[in-house]
Amino acid sequence: MSRTLYQKLVDSHCVLRLDEEHVLLYADLHIMNEYTSPQAFAGLRERGAPVRRPWQNVAVVDHIIPTHPLKQRVILDEASALQASNLARNCELHGIALFDTNDPLQGIEHVIAPELGMIRPGMVVLCGDSHTTTHGAFGALGFGIGTSEVEHVLATQTLVHRVAKNMRIRVDGRLSVGCTAKDQVLHIIASIGAQGARGYVVEFTGEAVAALSVEARMTICNMAVEAGARSALIAPDDKTLDYVSTRAVDLKRHLPRAVELWRDLCSDPDARFDAEHHFDASEVSPRVTWGTSPDQSIRIDERVPDPAAAVTPQQRDAAIRALRYIGLEPGASLQGLAIDRVFIGSCTNARIEDLREVAKVARGRKVDPRVRAMVVPGSGAVRDQAEAEGIAAELIAAGFEWRQPGCSMCLAMNDDVLRPGERCASTTNRNFEGRQGRAGRTHLMSPAMAAAAAVAGCITDVRRLERADER
Amino acid sequence: MSGKHTIAGVAAALPIANLDTDQIMPKQFLRGIDKAGLDRGVLYDLRFDGEGRPRYDFILNRAEYADCRILVAGENFGCGSSREHAVWGLLQFGIRAVIAPSFGEIFHSNAMNNALLLVAVSQADVDRFTRDVEQPASNRIEIDVDHLQVRSRTHDVKFTMSARHRAMFLEGQDLIGASLVHAAAIAEFERKHWDRQPWLQSIGAVVRARKS
Ligand code: SF4
Questions:
Q1: Which residue among A99, A143, B36, B141 is least crowded, i.e. fewest CB within 10 A of its CB?
Q2: Which residues form the Aconitase A/isopropylmalate dehydratase small subunit swivel domain (chain B) (predicted)?
């Protein structure tokens, strides 16, 4: 029988079927952080159960960590310091690999896992974090899980998984100049809605997806969860193979066999999808969110929609509420909207390619003096590479703060926080009320657009800057 | 007539679509290593202003809703972050059930794992319940889990729940214990799995060892 890629991955990881809807799914890799794992370890201790397969687990300190430019980092907040030391103790106790506060390879969990070669096509990855969908870029099935499930994985190396429906999102055509994977995925989310993929695992296909780099594919899969998707997938190809084989050096001796198996990691031609969407990449423009849900975005040349034009009363109420929070009127233009902060970072857009885009815009320009702009690389390795490539020096010269890696102002659990009313151009994934700080106003956009906002002092169309370059 | 397993009590309407877990439990309450004290954080920025003073116009701060046990919420309730703290906090706050047209997926699993009852009914049904409970005089709702029925003053509707989730709710199953029963099957799976794909074994340890 024909199967989708998702079905193949469920089949190859199904320890047993529990009932009509649920399977016991084996987890090849379980990634933990300091804030969603403590109660799971505590539960395990109470139960007196061991960690079943410590070596299939890794942990990283990323969410609460300060990003001050100091090489040696100290977590001053007492509760956060306790979370970090508690994680270290738990890892030590159970023999779990840890990337601790001052480890040169520390970084955001979803950035370091692929970068260090932990993510391989055909595997199942779990993590107590919703953006685990990122790893779908490798044809790996990633699920965000809660802390009870973290405990379940520690004890059994499995997850009780409710089998999802299959959705295919096909993107043909080509992105035009100045448009990125971030614009593409914001476009898709705006079109299908914040719960448009709820109940589904989404497979992205089509020539526009094939044309993307592996890093750009991670941006797409990362944000699939903002459309409610349970997970996201992209079938592996030569680019994937190249990325993985250069990073996972232990793979070398298995490579021929692995490649043979990976060739089957795609949906069969006549596999049935429960839902399908079609997009044309050439219709994508740079996009910016105007509201407080990731599906509330418009093209940079569009105007803020009028809630009165909303399709459902729920959408109308949501739009009214969002506009009140974000401080915008219907019909307003986002171009020229003054900003106070720029945040370039997060597991969505803090990899080396993203920073190269930022540097391209920043080169020879200055951050507007009214703006405070931070660049928080996704990992120590990204930071090192950016320094080696001279990107860091360029960004510093342009007036950006060059920080240590971590989640930082993506969720603002450390001291990188928006003050009430501050408006921020952000490369992150969530513009929720209060996400980056109480009463802070977040506008999601691509790294290039955020860099353009930094130098312009307001939200602007990066393509205009690029045109100015050509003159 | 109500069954043995009934949640009844004051319900409050929160007709907000996509009410995410960042709002249900803001970041500053996620710094613990246990589950204590999360009731303080529930819907914090809706309940309190910037100075920490209660917003008296917010529904959960009104005297008539002080004993709220049920929320009547908007679509995609609990979307966003996986933080289970949102569910722990709601339970500590006294909430036993949430009625909404739909729920975020990870939130849904988290709720089931903690016996917070989620009742999914149509938007039209939610609207009817909302209208009733917005009046303090008719703000009680009864959810009968035996008969899978929700009832407010003027409205009555059936809902569905998978057998598994119903059992989890009614019997409070020990999921880990239940899965550990299959330890032999897991071991057998691992043997075959690693035989076929040896590069998936011990990834964490292998990568860590190589890099340090
Ligand atoms: S960068 Fe943001 S989205 Fe990514 S793991 Fe950290 S907090 Fe979550």
A1: B36
A2: 6-122
